[in-house]
Amino acid sequence: MKFFIDTANVEEIKTALSWGLIDGVTTNPTLISKTKRPFLDVVKDIFSLGEEKDFPISLEVIGMKNGKLDSETMVKEALFFVDFLKKNDLNVNNLVVKIPMSLEGLKAVKILSEKGIKTNVTLVFSPNQALLAMKAGATFISPFVGRLDDIGHDGMRLVEEIVNIIENYGFESEVIVSSVRHPKHVLEAALIGAHIATIPFGVLEKLSKHPLTDIGLERFLKDWENVPDKDELFK
Ligand code: E4P
Question: Is the CATH code 3.40.50.10260 the one for domain 2-209?
Fold first, then answer.
């Protein structure tokens, strides 16, 4: 199972990378706006971190023309990302263009996948939306489990259904369990066999914690005080 980090905060990405726990990054317009930094500065910083290895980084297109989603505009924005990364000597192979689920979005996914550009279809809330994304050739599909749970639906059931469809037909798309709110979402995603979970920094930290671990550590440290040669060791 791969872990992506769901943030545009460069310090959080650096820290999670230092733990050796993450395989990629997902951003969205909300996460970018939270940084209060210019978008392209954030892009440069994130791409500089994962430059050497295969490290998918999702950047979302806006894709609006005359108040409507428009596939040509999405493709234009995606190609702008490609150009920008190339001009700045950043690893364009790590680019994943994140596209909002819609018929226009699916058209853009098809065009971009034919050009060999990776895509991530976002804002997926039903198995049929995911099926369309698979057929369009999406590299990644992002079902939003937390937002479904928030309105009383079962987000993980959706993930299960999408994984089943992929397995039934051998589609190559990978599922990114998104809108993760707590460690239980990560566990459930792993039990289902989802390919990837994109996890906020706070949830990533929580995964390592357990109160019995803290109590156990405290007891070991206290008992260690009674070991006679403790001060002579590790010198
Ligand atoms: C990731 O790709 C999504 O944009 C993100 O997980 C959405 O999470 P939220 O529902 O907490 O905003």
Answer: no
